[in-house]
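=== RUN LOG ===
request id: a7f3
mode: sequence -> structure
chains: 1
length: 742
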Amino acid sequence: MKKTFLGCLCFLLSLCTMRGHAQSDTTSNAFSRELEEIVISASRVKAKEEDLPQQVQVITDTEIQQSGSKDVADVLKKKAGVDVIQYPGLLSGIGIRGYRPQFSGLNQRSLLLIDGRPAGATNLATIDLDNIESIEVIKGAASSLYGSQAMGGVVNIVTKKSVGEIKKSLYASFGSYNTFELGLNVGGNLSEQLDFDINLKHLQQDKDYRHGHDNLFRDKFGWDEATRTYYSTDYEVDSTTVANDVYGDGEEREYTTYQYQSGGIRFGYQFHRNWRASISGTFFSASNVQTPGDYFYGNTSQSLKNPYRYGADLKVEGKINTNHQISLRAYNSLEYSDYRSVSAGIVSDYVTSKRTNKWVGFQLQGSYNIGKHILTYGFDYNRSNTTSESFNSNDGSEKAPNSPNYGIYSTAIFAQAHLKLLNDKLFATLGTRVDNITFDVKETRFLDTYKGAEESHQVFNPSLGLKYKLPKNFDIHASAGSAFVTPDAYNVAGYSISGPGREVNVKGKVNISYGNPDLEPERGITIDGGVGYLNKKNGLSADVTYFSTRVKDRITQGPTVTSNTIEITHEGDTIASTTTYINAEAATMSGLETSVSWDFGALAGYEYSFKIFVNAVKYIKLEEEFRNTAYTQENKISTKKVHNVADLTLTYGLEYTNYKFDARLAARYVGSRYDTDWTDYINRPEIEYPAFMLLDFSIAFPVNENGRLMILANNITDENYYEKRGFNMPGRNMQVKYTHNF
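=== RESULT ===
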């Protein structure tokens, strides 16, 4: 695979030297772009960021490079203040505004798009950073624009679309844990009508990473204990215990090496003065990715996996007349991964599980300009399917998977008005969308716990946003919207067993998790409102926004019920407890989002940029309410915490740019979070994670006319921390990257 990759790279280099000369000062161009007005495309019509009532954040390609991130989840957790679930071995997902982060399943609560269409990825680690021009994050319910899944918000990845003189860059980097990276980016016009982009990347980490050891912040602030809470059947507190959360300091984490190749190609053709066509494809391919299990189980639950993803996109767009634009897009993508179990370093001869996700769809969208106002309308069609297979590790024979095969099919019509009123002081967005969604849980071989069923829902989702510009650079803004998502197939019809062999003292006792076919879809309403300030002359911007989301029929895990009778599984284990899924009566997530940025370069006419920034998300309420009639005869309301969402997320730091020289020092604080303690898989208590804080640094500067060197240091204080307990992340790590433009 390496030889193939290097051969393609050399061929493309020779091909692209036939035309064009790159500018030597790419940093100047990047800095200039940051001073321009930012245009958002995730709103389904191009609009200035400062004119939108919704909370929007744009992460530029320069900021992505400065962050030292390995994947999209890394970028978002450092720059957008979202919640993250992240594992070693190329697996990550996010959550926005109180929705738990997810990394699998078609029913995400935060919608991921690529250039405004479904990304065709559930795992953010499989999306190539090299092909990203910017990332747009819209917070709040957005189902009136994009339908199901846009419960907490939308992340839109805008890919590179180079025009003009062909520019080429080749980079190589080397870093901690014998990490090597090689990449090529080429783009520009081959002719007056034809433009293109090509990117290729190879990354490999040949050495297991090490946990943090020095732990300056953890030791100083006492972030070294986790609290377990045990609940009774009716979800009343039985007892609490405090656990020492210090483990694995400075240890090498076994089985964490990996490598992958990724890339993309795009061609755009202006076949008429007013009409343009483009076609693109991307791929991600990794092999023998080592994946450690939970730290507490040692080397008994490791696996070796082969994730793969590709996507293809065809778009035609143009103008019918001066005021009417239209576009038609078709897309498809596939995401696949297979696993082999590993025990005590011995890899199974047989694949133990496979999962394949497929998406296909098209979008028809038009927009009318009516004076200063814009009316957008369209039709969306999407068909997605998941297939799961499981096999016995000893002989490769097929067995029942944990989750049945299923599909989600949707068609929708939508319309949205962007209005400018009162001499451009009042900006309003009014949207509506009608979806017809079919949730099809299919009969799956060997999984006889569920026979298959299909259910359709007709859903209407409206939205409203208002922004009024006050004197002296202030504004007030508010938005409201509804959202909807169907249950996941595992919630409805899953079946899994956990327990045997994990610990000697409980060997033979298991917990059974099973689906609930009576689950209702989730429906939510989000409102927000706040005050903003933007003064480009003095470089100061600030915003404080209050948000509140109320979700009806929130799908959540019910209390774990201890068995009072002796029941035996087919494998001969004793069923000690059972867990299923229920619809919560309601869930409430409310809080404050605060951002402040002051660029002192404004005082010098932006000859340089020296920015101080602070972004915070503080939750006031994170709570699920449900009735316990499924477990007791009492008709009373109980409450539980929303899991995997931090009560406070804070990012802050300094950034400096002077056209050639870049430097960034940034910190990330993550407050306490709640989760299920999977180390006690019989009782499954709730556990409260301690807080953590990380410090990162990057510096970049030219070393010759066409070359640029970047030095990155992540986790400077060498903290031993985790995004998911038991899966601790790397300690202090360094990277040196050289980029040559020609």
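=== NOTES ===
The longest strand covers residues 302-321.
DSSP finds seven helices and 45 strands in the chain.
=== END ===
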